[in-house]
Amino acid sequence: MNSFIITGFDHLQNQKLLGFLILITYMLILLGNGINLCIISTDKHLRKPMYMLICNLAVVDIMFSSTCSTTMISVLLAEIKTVSYYSCISRTYFYHLGDFTECMALTLMAIDRLIAIRLPLRYHSIVTNSRTFMLIFLTWLAGFAVIGFVISIADSVPYCQPVIRYVFCNYASMIRAACVNPEPYFFITAIISLGPLCGQFPFILCTYIVLAYSVTRLSNNSSKKQMISTCSSHLIVLFSYYAPKLVSILLTRIGVELNLTDRNAIFIVASLVSPLINPTIYYNVPYCQPVIRYVFCDYPSMIRAACVNPEPYFFLPAMISLWLLCGQFPFILCTYAVLAYSVTRLSNNSSKKQMISTCSSHLIVLFSYYAPKLVSILLTRIGVVLSLTDRNAVTTVASLVPSLINPTVYCTRTKEIRKRLADVFLHKRIVPNHLKVVS
């Protein structure tokens, strides 16, 4: 068998819509986890056991979601349904490796929180960077060994049909495509799944019960509220990972037969929801001063009010701004250069004047948006240090001037809108064209 055909989406009508939703979700997963990795890896103050565990979880989330999302996006948006055998089996390996290591990462983080709350004075002596790294390494080593054994089984069976009825490559989809009775092959994976669901999941819940008991004994109300908020957000992550698995098992046990669409939906939720939620839950910037020195709340003002080195946090916005200023802005200018060339070739003077008027008004809108950003960057580059008052003035202009100019240019200079405004303010009655009687 050289290749497989993914047919899990064939019965759906709005395939493009689902494809765009999965693409947006996948991009948000990459963005959220990428931000966590960039910030933690570039800030020396964050090289602590807790942040090492968050980095590990971010890597797992990216790997876990990438193996399934790329297949689904290619099937739904690019309409490429064929996957080679070796690509399918490698994606299966990394998908289940991500699933296994995600479970282990959540367990390590639960243990870390338990030690931090129950043994706060001994936490730094028990949980060190070297021990944390060693535990992370062992979880990955166990994952490589266990999932390698499972994939070797899938690789050894004969395949007689090139069709995968699921939405991406995994162990279940490959075994069901093989020329064998699938039940004995699912017994092995059921035993492996029994560990996380009947061992690690109850253990993590027990740690939260212990944490809840510790919270009730706190005398400080602010500390109590903070602990409840932290634990509740972490429980959201826990249930976003385990809930799809538990729902699938419980429904099967009580006699509810899940059809292929239901199973595919559970697979998609289990693969994308947890990696999407994790970066928003597990990393929050600590704030130590209640003062924002800017004129309103925005990203730089909040980061400068936090108890962190702001430079790593400005790296990603700088990359986004670079794309806007060095990508989109030159592209828009090129379109206007093409328009200017087209205008020079017009023979009709009235058309030429109208085109020049339209383009010039649009250029005013363009520069009203980009000019404050360009001025700020250029002044910084040539060594001019902008004071807080100057920065606030630039921010205010950038926020208000484009919104003030846009309706003036794009509405009042449009003939149809001017006519409509005149009709409204002069109280003229508008007769629809199909009711007009030609005398």
From TrEMBL:
Membrane topology: Multi-pass membrane protein
Subcellular location(s) of the protein: Cell membrane
Pfam families named in the record: 7tm_4 (PF13853)
Domain G-protein coupled receptors family 1 profile: 32-282
Major subcellular site: membrane
Molecular functions (GO terms): G protein-coupled receptor activity; olfactory receptor activity
InterPro entries (UniProt xref): GPCR_Rhodpsn (IPR000276), GPCR_Rhodpsn_7TM (IPR017452), Olfact_rcpt (IPR000725), Olfactory_GPCR1 (IPR050939)
One annotated Gene Ontology cellular component of this protein: plasma membrane
Chain segments annotated as transmembrane: 17-39, 51-73, 93-111, 132-154, 185-215, 320-343
Keyword terms of this UniProt record: Cell membrane, Disulfide bond, G-protein coupled receptor, Glycoprotein, Membrane, Olfaction, Receptor, Sensory transduction, Transducer, Transmembrane, Transmembrane helix
Keyword Cell membrane: yes
Protein name from the UniProt record: G-protein coupled receptors family 1 profile domain-containing protein
Organism: Cyprinus carpio carpio
